[in-house]
Input
Amino acid sequence: MTRAAMRDDTKPVSLGRERDERGSTALVPLLSVRKLRKNYRSGGGLLEVLRGVDFDLDQSGFVAIVGQSGSGKSTLLHLMGLLDEPDSGEVYLSGTRIDNLPAHHRDRLRNTDIGMVFQSYHLLPEFNALENVLAPLMVRYGVLEWMRRKTEARGRARALLERFGLGARLHHKPRQLSGGEMQRVAIARALVSQPRVLLADEPTGNLDEASGAEILDTICELNREDGLSIVLVTHDSAIARRADRIVRLAAGHVETI
Amino acid sequence: MYKLLLCWRYLRTRWIALASVVSVTLGVATMIVVNAVMAGFSHEMQTRIHGILSDIVFESHSLSGFQDPKWHMEEIKRAGGAAIAGMTPTVAVPAMLNFQVRGQWVTRQVMFIGIDESTHAHVSDFGGYLQHPDNRKQLSFNLRDGGYDTVDSQADSPGPTRPALEGAGWPYRRMRVERERLWRQRLESQQAPSAVNKETPQKTQSQPVRSVNAQVEAVLAAADAPADPAADAPLDPATSKQDPFRAVRPEEGRVMDPAQEQFTGIVPGIGLASFRDNTGVDRFLILPGDDVKVTFPTAGTPPKAVSDTFTVVDFYESKMSEYDSNFVFVPIQELQRMRGMIDPQTGIPSVNSIQIKLSPGTDLALMRDQLRKAFPADMYLISSWRDKQGPLLMAVEMEMAVLNILLFLIIAVAGFGILAIFFMIVVEKTRDIGILKSLGASSSGVAGIFLGYGLFLGMLGAGAGLALGLAITWNINTIRACVEWCTGQRVFDPSIYYFFKIPTIVNVYTISWIIAGAVGIAVGASVLPALRAARLHPVEALRHD
Output
């Protein structure tokens, strides 16, 4: 698998180029959050999940966020992935504040710049593996543009799936795939639009040890070889140790190790 | 793009949603069939109404009518201009039709209409409704020598035949006269010893003399009594010589031979002369060649009832039972003469009404208003054929509107079914909605999936309904026959309706509205579920199991 196969015409900003840019923007982290607060209303009371979190991810960095269940690590990931809005605080992508952008702008960023992988894979059951990988591109393009780019997009998706060893499973529906295979499809889907950052929420949580290890190897490889910036949420410190840096969340605050 | 693909996938994998669309299909099919049949009936009815009535009817308020139809027609021509394609004067009075069936007198209340046989067929479809092929070409009030249609000339496909009309005309008349003569002979031979003197009165009774003229004259004489002493003895040969009517009735006082001669011709509606039994076969009470008596009022004030004998020369069948069992046509000159509508001094006749035919493409209401402006409303009643049958046409239109509303409610009910099922699908698909949002799908995009799904289902349901509706409409008579055969019940009784087939008209405009309405309801029903899907919070949606 070469980088060229993953390159998107509409987005010439490939990971390689970003790496070059790093020199000039070295002081600006790729992704950073400042004084992030998030509360949930549960029953009558207010549950303070995040109480002012500060966090930075450098270009091509690999950060693991660990913490106990309910420590707010998933919430932090959702806020960074623009799936949720913070009560206060800011989220920056390459120095640009992104959490207060209009909804359609945030939708667009989610589609092009942020790739997400979840614990329970979250594949669309009606789509086969290839279509699931193509889903972000289908979301991006209208029917006509899709028709124009279909061949190229399919080629890219197929190449990604083949890279993850799923060349023979392209037309299988998610229910016909094993957990490890589903998670690899999910990773391929996250990568198909060449995001600037990959957010992984317990990607090995539902997998057996062997599959989990494989997935983890894949993620580490993406970081090392392709220079992909990754945030990995896990409760397992053994997995967290594979990252460059570990951030521990406890009681809504960050304790960097 | 994902919207289309997801809609398509949902369509293929969610059979329960298709079930909800069945009611849309049925509703659309029913609406199409009902509209086609109602439009068919309505069109058939309007054709029949219009067939007997001309485009515009120009009438006087009084039964005595107005004088000089020629002058009136010229005035109408001047007022209407080139739009007037044809005109014919008519005289219409209420009357009683009497005829003998198996020795019993049957009396019917009729509208007695005098028509001009040369021009009347040009202003309406009257000619086409007659039973003798030659009469259809050019109406004649002379009895034909047989050759009446034994099959309905207006039916597309052959229905039951009318064998009774086989020998109608002169052959039937001669046979009937002969039979009467034999019957009388038998009666006489039986009564010979006791009733030698009865021969003479019987003959005068069975061979009627034209007596109406005497009655008319009596009426005229009574009216003119003080002014014209000569009328005191109307049958006095001396006065008769000066009588201006003399020339018109050369047969006065002569005994006629019914086997060789006929009375004035008359064309009654087929509904007066026959009835249709429940097998759809017409049973005739009188036939062309029979004599009937008509009692009608004269034109004087107060009107006097006079009677005369006529010979049935044809029937007309407009298939509009109201007309077929009400209207009786005779030559207008005869009726004018018998009613005393011809001015004795000038010889100028009066008429009740003038039937006006417009050239094709003329605005009916506009021309009617134009004529109304040209003539004083207190003297003349000018109405279009639509005005004449206004309440009936309105009733049919009303009926159609109510039916359409009711049937559309069925589709609306189907809409609620779609609403409920879509809500279920949104709940079932909550996680997928979260996934799509995490992939960058906008809220409007997610809403679009379900709106598109509703549109797909609506089109599918309406399309299937269209196909089903058209299939039923085009084969409705086969289906009717099949249902009748299966149940043994008559679904469509030809003795009630005057056509053998259920008429249908498929109106593209109506169908487009039905389809648009059905699709609109399906989309409308998916709006709420779509909004709910759009408002789902991605994080909560992703957590949903």
About this structure: Chain B has two domains: 2-47+392-543, 94-209+255-344. DSSP finds 21 helices and 13 strands in chain B.
